[in-house]
Amino acid sequence: MADTQLIQTTMENKPDAFFEGVEKLLEIWFAPADNADLRKIPRHKWESLLKIVRCEIISYTHSEQVDAYVLSESSMFVSSRRWILKTCGTTTPLQCLRAMLALAADVAGHSRIDNVFYSRKNFMRPHLQVNPHRDFEQEVEFLDTFFADGSAYVLGPEDKDCWYLYTLLPVEGTVGALEKEEQHDRARRDLGGYTPEPDQTMEMLMSDLDPEIMAIFTKEHCKDAEEATKKSGIEKIIPGMVIDDFLFDPCGYSMNGVTKKGCYMTIHITPEPEYSYVSFESNVPVESYEEVITRVIDTFRPGKFVLTLFANRESPAADVPRKLKKFSSFGCYQQKDAQYCRFSGYDLHYALYCKFPS
Q1: Each residue of 24-83: pLDDT tens digit?
Q2: Which of the following is catalytic: 62, 110, 133, 268?
Q3: Closest CA to 345 of 201, 188, 171, 166
């Protein structure tokens, strides 16, 4: 109980404080090209780009295949042809698109875009966001100025918990899907028959978190990020990760983990009781995410969470989105909403789980 009181005291000292933990997630895949590599972009160029987004680099780690940056508002991951920017608060990630595409072409040698994914959960307080992030329609209009063949989707009820997605992937069986497959076939022939690399992303967006767990992620309870990581059990969720973590003052937590093979996981925590929020994301390729999901639930004990899983046909997790349809519950969490989508080359599972009794 004392731990809970600590974090509540922090809020009492700042009664008007609010922080939007819900992130905006932008992921761009560039088509393979000889000698092209996004990691050629130097740090000072990234720092300039992130000023547009309204955040900055706090820490950095890397493996042979991926550079991982902890930001003042979440994370950025850079590999040879994939760029991921995940930012919370009132950041403006879409505003940096023009600068990012210019850097990719002029510095990294990437001029052709393969896929784009922009996604987020519904904001807690959307009226506090900055253009073009005030609502999803506005974001879609902005993205359409860059990508002529993008499509927008809303999964879940718009007036409650939902998840927004914008992507270049057409729904399987449509004319656009056939065109996409032909485009990929041409690219493979042009590049000597390259095979698409396995791709999968599992994300859990949690809210109504356990106050005693959230109290760990305050400076009153832990002196630094390493202590918070160990006390919470975060380091055990996916063993073998090289962890780069940061504990904010007076509260809040971010971490990136990377493996030698280029896999990552990232966790971001807004612990204040009135608007607690935790996100977990990883691209670790497994045939079942049941154990990982259970460990995340046990670590944070949310009141509810949105689960999404994207996997392409080359991934070991290719069948997971379809299999997850059968999981009507995880322990004491009951599935309240679920949708399964089959895109060109990818499958997607979305579900909302709430603790029972809610």
Answers
A1: 999 999 999 999 999 999 999 999 999 999 999 999 999 999 999 999 999 999 999 999
A2: 268
A3: 171
Structure tokens that stand for 168 in this block: 């270049």
Give catalytic status of residue 23 as yes or no.
yes
Give start and end residues of each alpha helix (H) in 104-159: 136-144
Tell whether the torsion through CA atoms of 218, 22, 114 and 155 is positive or negative. Answer: positive
Would the pLDDT of 10 be above 50?
no
3-state DSSP assignment of residue 116: strand
Asked whether the beta carbons of 231 and 222 are under 8 A apart, the reply is yes
Query: For the chain, what is the mean pLDDT?
Result: 90
Catalytic site includes residue 80: no
- 20 catalytic? Reply is yes
**Is a pLDDT exceeding 70 seen at residue 185?**
no
Spot the catalytic one: 119, 254, 276, 344: 254
232 as an active site residue: the answer is no
**Using an 8 Å Cβ cutoff, are 213 and 232 in contact?**
yes
**One-letter amino acid of 261:** K
Whether 268 sits among the annotated catalytic residues: the reply is yes
Residue with tokens 């599992």: 202
Q: Which of 27, 62, 80, 88 is catalytic?
A: 88
- What spatial distance separates the first Cα and last Cα of the chain, rounded to whole Å? 22
220 among known catalytic residues: no
Q: What is the pLDDT of residues 327-355, one digit of tens each?
A: 888 889 999 999 999 999 999 999 999 99
